[in-house]
Amino acid sequence: MSAPVSIDVSDFAHRAAVMKGETPVVALARLGEFLAKPDGDVRYECVGVVRRDGKPSIRWSMAASVWMVCQRCLGPVRIDVDADRELVFVPEAALGDVADEEADSDYLPLVGRVNPMDLIEDELLLSLPLAPKHAESDEECLAVGGVEPDRLN
Question: What is the pLDDT averaged over residues 19-32?
Fold first, then answer.
């Protein structure tokens, strides 16, 4: 099932809707800037939920393997991402009142419609390392860069 272009967050939550699917990483334009290779897919599932406090939310889970540039050898390194997150939507005026209520939840303004693929891409980008590297003992990194791990420090 391909993701709709936009969803009404409040309606999605009140219907307890479920959306799941798979999309190629190359379909996520902002992510493309960080890729060494355009291989791989992002698998995602999101569930609409109205929380006990009445706030609409979307609970996400996603898994992906992406190829980034190793900062040691400049060769491709596979990065696995497995993320679970809750996005809670509140009126924009109330965002200032939300003070890190929960570590596993992010608060976003309730603006009506959102693009679910943008939210998936945001979460994926936030889950990536700032400086991806092979493991220090990875022979692939040594073969490409030709530098011994203890000489990198």
Answer: 90
